[in-house]
Request: fold
Amino acid sequence: MASTLSILATFTIIRSTFNDFIPKEVRGYLWSFIRRFSSEFTLVIEESHDGSSNHIFQATMEYLGSHVLSASAAEGSPKRLTVGKSEKVRKFTFGLDRHSEIVDIFHGVPLKWKYNANVNTNTNNQHTSESRWYELSFQKNHVEMVKSKYIPHIINTAKKLKDRNRMVKFHTVRRERWNSSAVNLDHPMTFDTLALDGDLKKTIMEDLDSFINGKEYYKKIGKVWKRGYLLYGPPGTGKSSLIAAMANHLNFDIYNLNLSAVNSDSSLEYLLLHVSNRSILVIEDIDCTVKLQNRDAGDPTASYPHVQVTLSGLLNAIDGLLSCCGDKRIIVFTTNYKDKIDPALLRAGRMDKHICLSYSTASTFKQLAANYLGISNHNLFSRIEKIIEEINVSPAEVAGELMKSQDPNTCLEGLIELLESKASEATSKPEGGEGSNNTKQENGCKSKRSNTTTSDSPNHNAITFLTVGPDPMTVREYTVKAELAPILKAVLLKHGDIVTDFSLNSTQCRSSLLEIACGIIQKVQAAKLEDLTEPELRSMLASVSDLESLKLRVSWLRKRLDQIIEALQLVKQCSALEEDKRKVVQEIEEMQKELGSCRMETLEKEKKTLRIQEMEAVIGTISESISSNEARLSCFYERSLVDGLLCL
Reply:
């Protein structure tokens, strides 16, 4: 023990003597000479570069900050870390203390980081500034890997971490400009707590994730990286809550644009030019903030003479050249009355996804009960579910009752009173009268089942009962057209009585609904895939959705129509890919002709040859995509489009 201490003391004295008597410049020369024989290479990343902030330094700080805490328990890891938090971020940020080191493993290669900081003083020993830098040390044979892979990995990871940790901001308009003092959006709503039917929630989340990861795809197809959503339905059905959940899911800022506070198209253009990337632009109640209704309804500005924002100005702002000034943006329109909005605002490219948020269902009630009361089952659930499917009550009204007490029995009994009161009001009003349930349905969605459609689907009214034509035939107790009788018989054999849950007992009404379903099947059965159009199929799909809202068991038919629409979209993709392939082949042929020219220099020929090889690889990729799509389409070409749906 004594000998060990003696050696340490001797080493300390030698080191101190070396630093005291050998000038700094000589020491530096000696160290540089020694490093010539070392296999280690060091990169220095300073805080500033060429007189401005060094982007790589900031990225390194963010990147290492996410590693230091998890690595602090490892042997040889730093024992001193820094921690902090600003109002702009959600979580604590950690970092290395000065002169601390940490080892990062990338692709199995150890990479040693060291953080340094020196205080700069003037001749009077006054603090003037601080110099900060990172040193990255590794074996010389990994230089290329660090340059081409590791540093880009640091920058990309740091960007993702920064985006994930930043606070969501809420921006509003003040005097036709975005308010400079944006507030933190601390809205607690997430998709975990949002009460939506499970399939709809999953569809929305998948669509958002596809958009956020679709930069290269949008670039490939030549479209601006933006997405439009129309949220429509009765008041209190969760449109604002869905927007907050979207913002929290993506960590996007919200820009809330009230069009009635904008006096001209030029002001609107200015506002949209100053919307940041990674943001959601929200225009709520677009049907009533300004007179941007269907132009077929008459003079669009007669009732709002002071408003100068025009429909044309709004269209150009969200989908014209102005929309190219920025990317990774989402536009959301909300309305209680979709049919009052001009169709030009709703087409594909402006509103890509139409999401209907309708009245409460048994599913949404259970989610609300779990969120507010912490229960998944109760003896009053069956009674509530039975009533809630028969009347129109918004999720906001249900939530209001569930918030009145922390006692589940009290809340559920109060909710039953509300539902029974609404049911009594509904039955006391004449059918089709003002405020009736039918009117409410038309003002919102066409059915209580929340759903999404793409923007090119046409508007549909409620189902009209059909009159049975000449030469009717009876299948069981139902009377339909003779030409539809074999189809109805096959449906009943395969799926049973699909109208058994229909609330009306009239055989004539039930027969009319069955005739609608059989008519759709007849059209699909008689057609080939190439004979059908997407608008035609979406019209059928809307009719099937209406049948489902009347409790007909036709989900099997809806799924098949969805599959056929998807197949049509694959056909379009194949056509587009074939056209791309043709253009690439044509370009290769032209380049090969140029290569045959004796005038071309050797270097240029090499470049052309390399380019041809790259394009041939692209052709291979396109051909694989076409083959994959054709394989998926083969079943639609080889068999009937209703194969497996009927018991023939």
Observations:
- The chain has a mean pLDDT of 79.
- The radius of gyration is 34 Å.
- Residues 246 and 548 are 28 Å apart (CA to CA).
